[in-house]
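User: structure tokens for this one?
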Amino acid sequence: MSKIMGMSKIISAKHSDTTMWMLPYSTLMLVLMIMFSALYSYSYQDALRYERALTDLEEKTDEISPSVKEIVLAQNIEDFIKEMRMEGIAEITTTPHAIKLKLASPAIFDSGSAEVKPDLMPLMLKLFEHLRHMDNMIVVEGHTDNVPIHTSRFASNWELSAARAFNMIYFYIQRGIDPERLVAHGYGEHQPTHNNRTQIGRAMNRRIEITILREVAGK
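Assistant:
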């Protein structure tokens, strides 16, 4: 009988030790859950504050400085490209001197054509919504592939590339952008970014590059 009672005490002691460890462990898990919940809440609130800040900047765009407008433009166009899944069509880069939007893919121009395809219009209108509130100079460059052209409309790729740039400029002039802010260049096939030996390479070389010169560069 005494042996049984002794064994019972040992089992009871072990059970007590286990219970003592379970309490701190459960407390630790509770603390971790609270901590991760707090971190998620802070992250979510930061995202909300960021979205609200961008919205406020857009609504008050006439009241903010040129440099802030440039930052908002670059961020919003980049977000729009991702939202519309246009990463293979459009690319935006920012330097201390300029913001450059490169548009290059089979979705932009057909070979030998200066007409911008309709798929590009949403992005061009999005860009216009920013440009109309800014005073920055805008340089539009037209480029072609290396396929020779000689038609009644285009005597060479020089004329074709210039027509591509001019068509983009007309798009913005018709919507009220001051023509004095716009400059067009045509480079023909002489500044390729891809190998003209492939169909995809030629399509990527048929492109438009829109450069918004940053006002802070001259200050």
